[in-house]
Amino acid sequence: MAATPSTMLPLGTPLPDLNLPDAVSAKVVSSAELTGRSGVLVMFICNHCPYVIHIREQLLKVAHEALDAGFSVVAINSNSVKTHPQDGPGPMKELATKEQWRFPYLFDESQVVARAFQAACTPDLFVFDARRRLAYRGQFDDSRPGNGKPVTGRDLRDAIATIAKGESPPAEQKASIGCNIKWHPA
């Protein structure tokens, strides 16, 4: 389980374009449809990553809180199914359905969207403000598998609350740490 940090896309970056199928509904979701009055939460995750599994219960709570606070929310899986079939659309649909996710779980088969976001790891978290400009990118909290720190979602929760008030989170943000995105083999 190699720890890979997020690349920290520059704050103020506009929401990159996306046009991806939802593994649950098979409906294609575009960035133009992400019209939350407070902003947009984009989470690069996958089914198998121990870092995601470690925080997933709290991450889902935070994602649903963000929906309730007026954010559009999407989860995106960009892992190669050639090397990690457990992260394919079938298992994605099964997980999201079982856990009753209220947001789409998008499959980035081409990995173009991950590259547009400069996503590097799972989880890699991005919060865009109401003007669709990047206001937060960073860790969920200080908890990691095996470090004994409680999973609270503090960093992401604080960022969402601040952005919902129309304010900017502090520019000093800690990078997310997780499994590297499983890029297609060359």
Question: How is this structure best described in words?
Answer:
With 186 residues, the chain is α+β, with helices and mostly antiparallel strands. It has one domain (4-180): Glutaredoxin (3-Layer(aba) Sandwich), CATH 3.40.30. The protein is built from 4 helices and 10 strands. A 5-stranded mixed beta sheet has the order 6-5-4-8-9. Strands 1-10-7 form a 3-stranded antiparallel beta sheet. The longest helix is centred in the first third of the chain and has 19 residues, at 50-68. The two termini are 22 Å apart. The model has no long low-confidence stretch (mean pLDDT 96).
The CATH homologous superfamily is termed Glutaredoxin
Low-confidence stretches: none
Q: What CATH first level would be assigned?
A: Alpha Beta
Task: Enter the CATH topology name.
Answer: Glutaredoxin
Order of strands across the widest beta sheet? 6-5-4-8-9
Average pLDDT over all residues: 96
The CATH architecture name reads 3-Layer(aba) Sandwich
SSE series: EEEEHEHEHEEEHE
Number of helices: 4
Number of domains: 1
How much of the sequence lies in strands comes to: 15-25%
What gross morphology would you assign? globular
Number of strands: 10
* Helical proportion, percent range: 10-25%
Distance between the termini: 22 Å
Summarize the biggest pleated sheet: 5 strands, mixed
Structural class given helices, strands, pairing?
A: alpha+beta
Rg (C-alpha, Å): 15 Å
